[in-house]
Every structure is written in structure tokens, then in C-alpha cells.
Structure prediction request, 285 residues.
Amino acid sequence: MSISSGSSGQLYIHVGLRKTATTWMQNYLFPKIQGLNFVGKTNNNYPDWFIQWSYWDDSHFQRNVGNLSKRIDAILANNRKTLISSESFTNTAAILNLAERIKAVWPNSKIIVTVRDPIDVIISHYHHDIKEGTVFREVQEYIDTERTPFFIGKRKRIYLPDYYYTEMIENYNSLFGEKNVCVLKYEMLTMNPRQFISELSDFTGLVINENDVQFDVCLNTGESLNNLENARYENLLSSIIDVVPDVRSRIPYEAVEHYFKGNGVSPITKDWLIEILRGKAHPYY
Prediction:
């Protein structure tokens, strides 16, 4: 059960896709919009039940959907426009399920999605994981192209269907109506921020003062090539150092340097991704 008629405030849900400046928007954009009640993880007003909305198992969610709706109703009781921003709405292999949960809790939600060239996202995701010390192979080794996400034992860390934007947006349009779904491009934010702000303002009906927004801290800078090469080597050592303590002397960088040359994304891999993604992110990319 859900309720949505007790309040006249409007609920916006920002679906925070990875590597689309979600953290920047939560810190430097949404809190600056006058007349907007922003609820995000960087604020003190972000309660646990927002996270549970996405992470409860299906059975427990169904038992609590009415309570979640009542909480939203209470937030909107002051008739203000409220925006919730959360990456949890894009959990791997659960994007449609989570969209349906939004619909169940608050059917009249308006949805904001920021997309980015999927290949750039995958590469950025991969580089981030190198930096975090978890991967060292070429990116293709970490990409899962199968539509069997819950076969956990075999699923790789990058689930490619998460980047099928056409499918994702069609699902949101079907659930909420096309006029209630705003799709913005990350590239517009980085190259033409005024246009990005204008489109967001038109969708929300709120005036956004560009002078209040810190665009200079927006971009994902990525990692330098040398850092990536060295980091991949160090990650390899870390993966086996517990069983081979003298691995550094056994596998000096010079012996495997050829393997780590480049950033781990070969032209062949890019062509492979382009072929798989062809038509699946249209008309966005």
C-alpha cells in the first residue's frame, strides 16, 4: 500500500548513477537550491530508513512500504519541494526493482537521472578500483555481460546491463510518465554547466543561482597513466603476498612491465564494448 494524497509537496528522487558527479551534486548543488528541502547522505537529516528503502529484502520491504509512505507524507506535509539523492537506487543488477520500489512508496515521484557515456563510466569505475587496490587485470576481465546477476559466485564486478540506459529510462518512463522523468548528461555539466542548471531548474520549477554553485570542484580527475601502471603491479603483489612473502623479489616490475603498459583498456576492448552497447544507450549516447 502507498499514500500520496495527504500532502501537496512534491517529491523528487535523484537516481545517483556511479561516476556522474553524484557526490558533487549532493555536496555543492542540491543544498544550494533555495526553496528545496534536500535530503542526502551528506546531510544530518538522512535517516536510516532511506537506506533501508533500497536494501531491505523484498519480503520485508513489502511489509513496510506503508510505513515508508507515511514517512514521506510527513516530510512533504509542509508543502515544500523535497529532493532525495541516493546512489542506493542504482545498486548493481537491481535498477528496475528499485524503480518499482520508488513507485510503490510514492507513485507521484519525479525522477532525475544523470547519465554519462557508458564506456567512460566503465573505465572510470575500473580506474577507481585500481586505485582502491582491488584489481590488476585488463578491464575486460572484470566485465559481466550475462543477464544472470544473482549467480553471485560467477558475477564479475562491473555488471554491463547496468549501463543499458535506453532500457533503464524506458522503465522509469513507463512507471512515472515521460514528463516526470528528467534525464541530464554528465558531459553537459562539465562542458556547459549553465545549460545543465537551466534544464534542472525547468524540471523542478526552482530558481538556481549559478553564483552559489561551486563548479570548480565538479570534475572527476581520474588517475595518471604512470600511477595506473604502478598501481596494477602493486595490486598484483598484494593479491599473493600473504602466500608468497618474497613476491617482490620473485616478480620484479621489470619482469612484468609489458603486462601493465597502458591503462588496462585496449582499443580492442573499447571496440568490444561499443559493439555490445550499440543501441542500448540510444539516444543518450
In short: The CA atoms of residues 96 and 171 lie 7 Å apart. The first strand starts at residue 11 and ends at 15. Strands lie at 11-15, 36-40, 81-86, 110-115, 143-144, 158-159, 181-185.
